[in-house]
Fold these 4 entries.
Entry 1:
Amino acid sequence: QVQLVESGGGLVQAGGSLSLSCAPSGSAFRLNTMGWYRQAPGKQRELVAVISRDGRINYADSVKGRFIISRDNAKNTVYLQMNSLKLEDTAAYYCNGASFGPTYELIPGPILGSWGQGTQVFVSS
């Protein structure tokens, strides 16, 4: 079963930046359309960015203009550059499979195996 490993989280002041990475561990599994999700305490997990294998991208309105999703297919890795961080960006961040709808809206899933442990992002004032 695919295990996704996220890294790069940490503590940052509001307005700062962080860069997250995600790669599968163990099996030689090719990442296809992928998404970054986040889950804040007491809230449901939400999908914030999606990138297809050929580079189509879209974002949730809450992060549009501040976050940049990218990937390196040769390294089988997906990244999330987070800029102009806000207090409300504080959450555990996960990567997993995702999709686009007919008008490029973000669609959670299909999920690739089990969720990783995520990487925690804390934004302080």
Entry 2:
Amino acid sequence: QVHLVESGGGLVQAGGSLRLSCAASGRTFSSGAMGWFRQAPGKEREFVAGISRSGGSTSHADSVKGRFTISRDNTKNTVYLQMNSLKPEDTAVYYCAARSSAFPGTDYRDYAYWGQGTQVTVSS
């Protein structure tokens, strides 16, 4: 069992920055790839970024490339999402997720463990 807790969300003006954190507990020794997803009201859950078990491989959705950066610190069992140049369209609940595979995927259905989500609101 892996327990994930997101933090760092909040209200920010367009063009501002936030850093989300996701702390993992439980059987973290077997932790694999991790990802960030987001979901706005009435919309489908959307892939944002993923990172491999080692952190050596990352992927980012086209909508956030150049603005968001995913990283992880395995010694702290924590994954981060640095969000810069935020836009109102980034407003959503952001979730971190974990899977047993060493490599991330973009389909939320491939992730077995989920955090509770953290709200990010970007004002214009």
Entry 3:
Amino acid sequence: QLQLVESGGGAVQPGGSLKLSCAASESTGSDYHMAWFRQVPGKERGDIAEREGVATIDADGPTTYADVVKGRFTISEDNAKNSLYLEMNSLKPEDTAVYYCAKKPVGWADFGYWGRGTQVTVSS
């Protein structure tokens, strides 16, 4: 079964940067959409419905971003390494959250594969 493992989270001051990585346990080719979601403090961690979309990258390449991160975050992938990335710049305290990597096959309505998340804390 496909497994996703996030890494790269940590504590950073406002204005700082972090780069998150998500490693997939197997190659998924070009038949999947991938995304980063986040869950802010105070939300039930296990509840997928409480997670907000941050950025997506479609199977054929186009990317989308939540308005609150546009211009600051960049999603990318390296299919040769079965990896997804999220480069985060100009971080703000409101970016503090658990960040999750997710995948869904092309044609699925919802993301069905999730990692366990990595904590990002932005504070001075």
Entry 4:
Amino acid sequence: QVQLVESGGGLVQPGGSLRLSCAASGIIFSINTMGWYRQAPGNSRELVADIDNNGFTNYADPVKGRFTISRDNAKTVYLQMNSLKPEDTAVYYCYYRPTGSSPYWGQGTQVTVSP
């Protein structure tokens, strides 16, 4: 019933920028949290950032000061990634979680940071 479509991934050099987008469709509850996890080869999946319906944001320590998460409605979220580093290379998975429910996941988008 819920689908998440991600876009904006790609290949960039260190210090470059990318902007990820995630759009949810279907029956969406207004009270929710959306954001991204990422998984690099050999690593476990880890939280990058999220934002709730009140605009409250959370960031993982490695991305604080470089990434900004935002949303313009209940169904669309953006992740602006600046000053990218090779260690940011991973598959980024968008998620949507209605309060009190399990999350729904996007298909994942590859972000590669390499000189």
